[in-house]
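Subject: for your reference before the review

Hello V.,

The reviewers asked for a structural picture of the protein, and I figured it would be easier to keep everything in one thread rather than splitting it across files. Below is the amino acid sequence we used in the manuscript, unchanged from the supplementary table.
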Amino acid sequence: MSDLRNDVDTNAMASEDDWAAEQTPGFLLWNLENIWQREQRRALEPYGITPVQFLLLSGLAAKSADQETVSQVELARHCRTDPMMTSQVVRALIRLGYVERTRDRRDKRAFAVRLTAEGREIGQRAEPDIRRVDARFFAPLAHDIPAFTDALRLLAGERPRRRVQATSRNA
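And here is what came back from the structure prediction:
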């Protein structure tokens, strides 16, 4: 990502007199993410797992459907999580009995991970509750959810699935 200080269109930003940190898009996004995570944690509390643990269980279930073995690095890439954090969360999932880890047959330096029957079951049981949280949380966006999702992808540096109206940061 380029140095955003040089790319900001100062005409598009509020004047210094009108600027308030709590009203900036970044602060609002951070605040929204905290609210969303709180709702996710509440939904997952009966299952004894965290949102990140659910994400990795779900990601591992999806990757396992496509291939026999999944390395921790592949899992981190698929879930867009930090590899070191993924390793720590996988260790917690191993202690819970939801994941097994072995040396990868293809690369002896790497670890392969797989869901246990218990891990698959807890992920499947929790998924409807997580889907309900998302549906309730994003309901105010109604038909704008695809555009919102594409805008988030655009900001993350990914190619949106649909055409998104955006201006160049270098313009």
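For the response letter, the relevant points are probably these. The chain has a mean pLDDT of 86. The longest strand covers residues 99-103.

Happy to draft the paragraph if you're swamped.

O.
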